[in-house]
Amino acid sequence: MLRTKTLIGALAFALGWSAQAQTKWDMPTPYADGEFHTRNVHAFVEEVQKASGGKLVIQVHSNGSLIKHPDILRAVSTGQVNIAEFLLSQFGNEDAIFEADNIPFVAAGFDQAWRFYQAQKPVLEKHLAQRGLTLLYSVAWPGQGIYTKEPLKTVADLKGTKFRTYSPMTARLAELLGASPTVVQVPDVPQMFATGAIQAMITSSATGTSTKAWEFVKNYYNTSAFHPKNAVVVNTRSLLRLPKNEQQALRTSGAGAEKRGWDMAKEREKEANETLAKNGMTLHEPDGAMKSAYAKVGDQILAEWLKKAGPEGEQLIKVYRTGK
User: Fold this and answer.
1) Domain of 49?
2) How many CB atoms lie within 10 A of CB 201?
3) What H or E segment, with its residue span, contains residue 98?
4) Is 54 contained in some domain?
5) Could you read off the pLDDT of 233-268 as tens digits, one per residue?
6) Residue 220 domain-assigned?
7) What's the CATH code of the domain at 159?
8) Number of domains in the chain
9) Is the pLDDT reported for residue 18 higher than 60?
10) Cα angle 104, 107, 110; round to 5
11) Is beta strand 229-235 parallel, antiparallel or unpaired with respect to 219-221?
12) Using one digit for the tens of pLDDT, what is the confidence trace for 26-64?
């Protein structure tokens, strides 16, 4: 009897210890479950759990349900949450390096966007580290294009429009195009168009399909102006408190999620363009005059950004353009 009680006690202790040894984190993300970034996050957390032998469990809270997008960076920096995903350029006002990938027409297309990321990554990691954060991976959105209700004869047709933006850089782009920038989070886009609060926007074809853009606009200009990136970061103190194998599970799974995510982004752009057309939208390729007008605006934004970013920004652009 004594031996049986001892065994039962030992088993109960072991089970209790096992439960205590499991770490559970909450992970806020700003986009809906159907969006490819969020699907990639779900795959990432499943891989982390598997690689950690079930010891690290991450609960995803999508679509801003736990923490609204503008508050996510602060939440993960202060340790309110241990891990999070956010759009880097959302916080461009706080750090110019975060919005480097929003400079229009500097790195258009996925190949150029990947090269730009390789130049940006060391500086980005340094700036995140200053906030107590470690970068696990970063994935680009499809190229950004312009959505309008009426066809554009020239870029000047955007003057005076209420233009949906999502970052300081896109707000500046709207200003230089003569439009009135209006910050609107993705879930609110359909309602804001319906009420006339916005009349045009710049965003990816992916966001266009997830918001069913064909219900409120008819034209999409495939400018591929830039490829903003989401970042998945972990609070560094939280990371270092984990056993080494669980830290490695996060890093290894992050590397896999980055590669998978970029492939998903390319496929998402292709599918999204087809979906927009299938639902009655007209997809336009900007003519020479439009490209020239956009490039002029891009040059001005780059010059302004370099003043804010200083020597680090100049070095980033140099490395991107020269490879050294």
Assistant:
1) 23-322
2) 30
3) none
4) yes
5) 999 999 999 999 999 999 999 999 999 999 999 999
6) yes
7) 3.40.190.170
8) 1
9) no
10) 120
11) unpaired
12) 999 999 999 999 999 999 999 999 999 999 999 999 999
